[in-house]
Amino acid sequence: MTGDQPGPSRTRRSPLRALLDRFGHLIHELSKFATVGGVAFLIDFALFNFLTAGQGMEQVTAKTISTVIAATIAFVGNRFWTWRHRQRNNPAREYALFFFFNGVGLGIAVAVLAISRYGLGSIWPSVFQTPLADNIASFVVGTGLGTLFRFWSYRRFVFVEAGTQTAPEATHDRDRGA
After folding, report:
1. Residue 4's pLDDT is what?
2. How many CB atoms lie within 10 A of CB 6?
3. How far apart are CA 110 and CA 113, in angstroms?
4. CA dist., res. 105 & res. 93, Å (int)
């Protein structure tokens, strides 16, 4: 067949085009989330290093402070840019959930830093108790794992779409025979 058939011609979509059609909205949200996260990351990184190297602050305390400040900036960016198209029915709920999930993300990053510095650092202090090791543990591993968790939780629980339930409802089907 050479395409001489009557009627509308159908062209096959490429696999890439099919993926973009299916997941384009997710890619768009993820790119905005990454941009906001990138800005927050730079603030977190610069403030952490300023507090530890410039001010002599203890690493876990500095990481906590830098993450709280960066998270505040990320909330504003995500609410008013990344997910601005989603419903805003209860800003206090969004704010509370955002900071709760950021707390979990902070816990992930701080736990990775603490395991590196104090756990592995007690075995190999010359390797794991260095500024480079602190930055890798905190910003590469900790922030990476925390970011995956945050994207999922923000999208699922914080900035929900209109009509989206935040938790699945339990169904009880007692009428069904055994």
Report:
1. 52
2. 5
3. 5
4. 18
Alpha helices in 8-57 (DSSP H): 15-49
- Residue 115: pLDDT band (50, 70, 90) is very high
Give the dihedral sign, CA 106/108/109/114.
positive
Q: Whats the size of the chain, residue-wise?
A: 178
| 17/41 Cα distance (integer angstroms) | 32
- Dihedral, CA of residue 85, residue 90, residue 92 and residue 98, to nearest 10: -40
Structure tokens given for 77 = 């960016």
Between CA 102 and CA 80 the distance in angstroms is 17
Q: Rounded to whole angstroms, how far apart are CA atoms 92 and 74?
A: 16
Q: What is the mean pLDDT of residues 149-161?
A: 84
Q: Which of 17, 121, 9, 102 lies closest to 59 in space, CA to CA?
A: 121
Q: Which of 89, 100, 106 is nearest to 159 (CA)?
A: 89
Q: Given a cut of 90, is residue 154 above it in pLDDT? A: no
Going from the C-alpha of 152 to that of each of 7, 35, 92, 132, the distances in angstroms are: 45, 16, 20, 29
Share of the chain above pLDDT 90, in %: 24
Task: Report the candidate in 68, 89, 65 with the shortest Cα–Cα distance to residue 158.
Answer: 89
